[in-house]
Amino acid sequence: MNHLLREHAPISDAGWQALDEEARDRLSVALGARKLIDFSGPLGWKYSATNLGRVSAIADSPATGIVAARREVLPLTEVRAAFTVSRNELLDNDRGAADMDLQSLDEAALRIASAENVAVFHGWEDAGITGITGATPHPPVPRVEDFGDYPKRVAKAVSVLLKSGISGPFGLALGPGHYTAVIEAAERGGYLLSDHLRKILDGPIVWAPGVKGAVVMSLRGGDFLFESGQDLSIGYSHHDAEDVHLYLEQSFSFRVATAEAAIHLTSSEAIPLNR
Q: What's the predicted TM-score (pTM) here?
């Protein structure tokens, strides 16, 4: 038995399999940040902090002639999203029903994936996480409302990264609104905008719920470091006569190793590219 307490839940092996598969399917789509950054782990629930490789001096020591320093670490953050599943739905699944209602799980998966994306791309101050858009020294590239002009913004972002000595290939993380507009848009002659962007980037376009605007970033590796303690898992809280109360949970840290390896494309109004 571990801290997830799955053994205490009134859920059959088939029920757990259905829940785990549904969570995996939903999370694999929504965890956009993981498709573009370096993922390390999972290192286990007991793993508590990321080594930053730095020290801070300790002014006072317990004895004369002693010099001391404290190792600096980034504590992992625990994140949980609760959901419920009807006990009747679980029983129907055991009988062979193929359409179990897992809307609450789907919503929890989107919430926790969005929280992870926000932490990676925009930071989480209370958790000690500086996000990619907060760390980059590059001024953001504004966009126009006409998405047909979007390739100019992405090309400018790639150019800024290359001039800073950052090599490709590059990836593009898009918030839901931007993603829909880009995927649906076609340029003159019917050429898909998304295909044009992929050629500029030489890399993928990723749907990342929680992202504000978009982020162009290098995929060369070593620049954006995500460390997983416990990877996303379903745990048991309690149950009553009607529902089983469960949750999705993970622990993680994130740090930016090379701040200049990404640039933010904002959602502001049109501003000339040379500004």
A: 0.90
